[in-house]
Amino acid sequence: MSDLIAFQRDQLGFFLQRGNDATEPLVRLSMGTGHVYLVSDADLVRPIMKADESVIDKGRLIYKLREIIGESSMVLSGEEHRKRRAVMHAQMSRGVTSEYVPEISAIIRQCAAQMAMSGSFDAHQVTASLAVRIIATILFGHGVLTTADENALINALHLAEDDLAAQIFKIIPDLPWVRSRKKAKLSEANKTMEFVVEKARSNAKRHSLISALEELNLSEKAMQEEILLNLLAGHHTSGSAASWVLYFLGKFPDLAEEIAQEARGLTDANGEIDPRRLSSAKTSLAFVKETLRLYPSAYWLSRETKQEMELGGRKLPAGSSLLISPWQMQRNPRYWPEPEKFDITRNHSGAAYMPFGSGPRVCVGMSLALLELQLFALEIAASFEVDLGNNVTAPPPIPAITIIPPPMEMRVTPRATPQHQQMVA
Question: 85: domain CATH number?
Fold first, then answer.
């Protein structure tokens, strides 16, 4: 129980301390009656994530998320999981190569204009709404969700997520009236989310992700849960990461200017980013990848042994939980010299880099998330300078189901064009 108390007191610090100080590949954690291990060796991650589902699969810690996301692909295994994943991957891959770029860029520019007009704003409040708008456009088509719909979805998720995050590692059950209160709150959140999703689905446009999912002939309940998963995952992963993109653009103005220059080289005669040129935008992509190294949205992953096995020099009984922490792996000095330093020249392809997971179950939206964040960095840097105000030193993030950025008040001001700079000179 001692590790559980330390974990609940400071989850991110706990992973860093136990993982970075580890002298063995698997660290046994005292977190109740079950066998729980923290994976401290990056070379074990891929074999764990690639293992046959009969040997290592999603387990009870992941299954607790069913309270919000139901029987969606996040908790599924086997043929049904592979079938849904293949459809989503194919649709997203087609869009990432061309059609999503102008749509996402337009949404980002609209958001940026609102940031500039609002004066001071909280970064995550803005980027969370932006992420919902983008994933809703991918799912349903442009303009299907209203601002009120987006706010309702975000508020509903916040209503439930803190209690659910605490519940995942809970050993002592809640008292009956506390449990009843939490269930009522979760039920209210789910009803709100389901109402918004059904409204959006009825107005969905052809060639959207929802039209591809409908080809699977899922039940109404399964379709609802899959849509909710995509909305909520898009909101949390991209929305949180975009806050840190803004932060680092403000923290390193010279690097932001370099990304602004890169953006100018990508635009066509109409001032739009040409999707065919994005592959040459190395600086902005490295910037995004380094942001995700320091602030991966998912700070822990979990798998469970389905049978007795040997791993990392240990004999593990069936039902052992294996915790993998991207937050810890990506800040471990064994793999990253000066791990707290922001450095876009790092190699972001090693075994210890896993902001989207690893192996065949890597996040299906990885390419889309990278595209969103790269376009966000390019569009913001090209047109604005970010003023961090009093947030020059980033406050610590908040661990919930994912890592939530803390309140960070910022402002953006129009960047001087090269022509204007020459006139001033």
Answer: 1.10.630.10
Q: State the pLDDT confidence band at 173, using cuts at 50, 70 and 90.
A: low
The contacts found for 352-357 with CB under 8 angstroms, 24 or more apart, are 352/42, 353/289, 353/293, 353/329, 354/45, 354/296, 354/301, 354/324, 354/326, 354/329, 354/330, 355/289, 355/292, 355/293, 355/296, 355/297, 355/298, 355/326, 355/330, 356/298, 357/49, 357/298, 357/301
The label of the residue with tokens 């635009």 reads: 267
d(CA 97, CA 371): 10
pLDDT at 425: 41
> 318: which DSSP letter?
T
Quick one: pLDDT at residue 207?
A: 72
Run of H or E including 290: helix 282-294
Residue span of the structural domain in which 204 resides:
2-424
Residue 324 pairs in a beta bridge with 301
d(CA 422, CA 370): 34
* pLDDT average, residue stretch 374-380: 97
C-alpha dihedral, 83 to 85 to 88 to 94, nearest 10°: -100
Domain count, the chain: 1
The larger pLDDT score, comparing residue 66 to residue 381, is at: 381
The reported pLDDT for the residue numbered 421 is 47
